Structure of LLM class flavin-dependent oxidoreductase:
Amino acid sequence: MKKFEISVLDLAPVKQNKTIHDTFNDSLDLARMVEKLDYKRFWLAEHHNMASIASSATSVLIGFIANGTQKIRVGSGGIMLPNHSSLVIAEQFGTLESLFPNRIDLGVGRAPGTDGITAKALGRNPMNINQYFPQQIQELQRYFSVENSESLVRAIPGEGCDIPIYMLGSSTDSAWLAAEMGLPYAFAGHFAPQMMETAFEIYHQNYQPSKEFPQPYTIACVNGIAAETDEEAKKLSTTLYQAFVNLIRNDRKPYAPPVDDMDEIWNPMEKAHVMQMLQYSFVGGKETIQKQIAQFQKRFQVDELMITSHIYEHEARLKSYDIIRKATDALNAGL
């Protein structure tokens, strides 16, 4: 088992009886705390038309978080590139990098981050996404390059900025592309665990070194819910379970507080579906979390573990990331 970094994926979760203003302040408070705990990076994800997630204007929120912190890397996990013009994203992230030098990451994915009707409202053309997505990444690389100064179309700010691009995926398609382009690869194991092992194998076996990334680099995003005891963590996890039941039911309402008995909420089929989607969820006290992470890392040998945490109470969420940091430190110290 090799040593690994840990980071945060924040969806800017909107909770029942809380405002979106509250959500943004909680995200900033979390970023400041994990920065003190030496988490490597703090990423935000682009989603649309969901009352439970407030990170739709991802670039704007990255600026808010970066401005309120000092050293932690801040970025997108990710920008859903086919929703946007490559030039606009180059300009936005060039602006962010110019404001916060050497702290900005650009993670990109091809999924819409929403439903079909909203994807259409965003201007996506599903007929050419798979063909155009690799071209968009090449466009970003060109806009960020110094050599593009002679082009008729330039990203100002953006040109000459050292902004690392990360490929996101929830299936094997992006693993092939990340390997071919020599980019780091982040897999969405927090909701799509089925193909993660195969995707990482494809990525490592086919990796073509690039100037920026001579070695492959893998990130696994997982759910993490830690508390003082296993029992407390299991109860906190019911907020996560309710959120995924709502997804199955196409009900995008804000996150709900934990409950004592999930069997009063889901039916057996929904339970089986949710537990399958949440296969890579670490839930428990420090010792339990430590064992779960150790088992995961022995199997996958990732370079970085990115934790997303659906916990209703803000203070409990902060405590969870503190416990996970301590569990990870204990593991890495023994390697």
User: Anything to note?
Assistant: The first helix runs from residue 20 to 36.
